[in-house]
């Protein structure tokens, strides 16, 4: 088909009713069948098609007895109709999703570390603008956060050091070094240099289970250095890790933000790890690639980004 085919006169707007008649004729290949489908007389259908051709100033069909054969112009008009119908469907889909988000539910999956800001800052602003919006907030490992986003079980994900996935789009992030937290008065607290994980192998250590961003960093460093940790506690709770340290039971590793209040109160000390990998670890805000984001989801994303000082 010649895509450069031009109409003989510019269009001043297409009659939508006649366009629908034309489409029906194209679909059924017959004026009579199209007229039956639309419950009008065949003569009325023929008249509408003739008027449509007059408006476009080009023939859409060749007549051979009782049969009609579409011209190249007819296929161009058909393509125009389909493209506009697709845009119309996309618009209604978007409006439906927007309405669902405003009046329905948005699912967020996150690591436990981010709960305080989520509850006290993010939700307060979002509920103020969308009082009917229900937010489902689930806590899980970084690995499960990614899986929920990829499988469309959640709309927004927030995690520390999540695994890479080709279907995930990281829309904002923040570098948050992975640190070793030790009780105040602990022998390691006196160190003035960056600590190597080989220096902590003699002390009781609390860590996250496999699948959490914290654990992935530790496992990578232990393999690189060929050292083992003296594990005293495994837990999926950052609250438990922090209090394990504050109570003096042993040491752990986490984001500085997770232990910052205890450090300020003199209950713990945060030590920088001598590792480029640990120092470049990130908090990442994620959505599934090519997903539609409604106004309420955009507001949630912006509040999360602002609350956690993430950058685009």
Automatic annotation (TrEMBL):
Presence of the UniProt keyword Transcription regulation in the record: yes
Keyword DNA-binding annotated: yes
Domain (HTH lysR-type) ranges: 14-71
InterPro entries for this protein: HTH-type_LysR_regulators, LysR_HTH_N, LysR_subst-bd, WH-like_DNA-bd_sf, WH_DNA-bd_sf
Any Pfam family: HTH_1
Keyword annotations: DNA-binding, Transcription, Transcription regulation
Domain of life assignment: Bacteria
Recorded family membership: Belongs to the LysR transcriptional regulatory family.
The protein's name: HTH lysR-type domain-containing protein
Naturally occurring in which organism (per UniProt): Acinetobacter lwoffii NCTC 5866 = CIP 64.10 = NIPH 512
Organism ancestry: Bacteria, Pseudomonadati, Pseudomonadota, Gammaproteobacteria, Moraxellales
């Amino acid at each position: 088909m010649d895509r450069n085919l031009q109409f003989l006169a510019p269009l001043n707007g297409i009659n939508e009713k006649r366009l629908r008649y034309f489409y029906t004729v194209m679909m059924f290949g017959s004026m009579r069948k199209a007229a039956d489908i639309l419950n009008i007389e065949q003569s009325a259908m023929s008249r509408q098609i003739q008027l449509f051709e007059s408006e476009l100033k080009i023939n859409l069909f060749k007549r051979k007895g009782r049969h009609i054969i579409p011209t190249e112009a007819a296929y161009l008009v058909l393509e125009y109709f389909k493209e506009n119908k697709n845009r119309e469907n996309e618009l209604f889909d978007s409006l439906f999703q927007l309405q669902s988000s405003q009046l329905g539910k948005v699912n967020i999956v996150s690591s436990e570390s981010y709960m305080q800001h989520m509850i006290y800052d993010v939700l307060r602003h979002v509920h103020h603008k969308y009082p009917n919006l229900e937010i489902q907030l689930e806590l899980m490992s970084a690995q499960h956060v990614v899986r929920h986003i990829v499988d469309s079980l959640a709309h927004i994900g927030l995690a520390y050091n999540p695994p890479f996935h080709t279907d995930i789009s990281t829309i904002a992030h923040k570098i948050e070094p992975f640190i070793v937290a030790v009780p105040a008065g602990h022998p390691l607290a006196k160190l003035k240099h960056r600590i190597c994980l080989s220096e902590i192998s003699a002390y009781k250590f609390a860590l996250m289970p496999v699948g959490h961003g914290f654990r992935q960093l530790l496992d990578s460093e232990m393999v690189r250095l060929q050292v083992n940790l003296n594990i005293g506690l495994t837990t999926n709770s950052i609250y438990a890790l922090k209090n394990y340290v504050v109570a003096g039971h042993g040491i752990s590793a986490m984001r500085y933000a997770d232990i910052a209040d205890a450090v300020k109160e003199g209950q713990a000390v945060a030590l920088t790890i001598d590792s480029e990998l640990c120092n470049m670890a990130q908090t990442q805000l994620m959505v599934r690639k090519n997903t539609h984001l409604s106004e309420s989801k955009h507001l949630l994303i912006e509040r999360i980004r602002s609350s956690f000082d993430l950058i685009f």
